[in-house]
Prior knowledge:
The chain crosses the membrane at residues 7-27, 47-66, 105-126. The chain is an all-alpha fold.
Amino acid sequence: MTIYYSLTFMLLASEMVTFCILVAPMPYAAKKRLFRFLSENPIVAKIAYGLKISFIFVGILFLDALQRMFRVTAESDLAKHGGQAQDVRTETNFAARKFYSQRNVYLTGFTLFLSLVLTRTFYIILDLIHTQEEYAKIKQETSKASHQSASGNQTVELEKKLATLQQSKDRDIETLKKQAAQQAKEYDELAERYNRATGERSNKKSD
Length: 207
């Protein structure tokens, strides 16, 4: 395997490890910190930019490997059906070339495919984290609004109770005023009767 295909294999292995890390079950707080680091860190952004350039070269290798595979397959089919006598060494050579060309196609193709899957998975999980954050904010605001509504209902109930107590107090005061006026009237009547009785007795004594 040439050096650029070895680097492609290493890139494919790193993509597989990264994909396993992204989809691995972990606590929400840890996943949130991890994805925030990956999406906001400038060093990670530079690495991602370099990987995008490397994927362009992998795409070129994929096209070249695909072209070689078609050429080797065509040469092998032509040698089989051309009527030429072939020894074991020639057949082995064609089989090896065909195997290597197919291996290179699969290697570069899976590298490109996994890069697309990895990118899409990353942004889906990132959107999910943002959605969960928005849901938590909305839930918190809703709980605050419900608490304020409950406090408002309690205030209204207290105001109603206070108004009822005020009305009861006013009724009691009016009742006390009426009772005091009635008692004062009765006291005046008793006083007048007493004065009359006392005045009649004094008149009898003077006679």
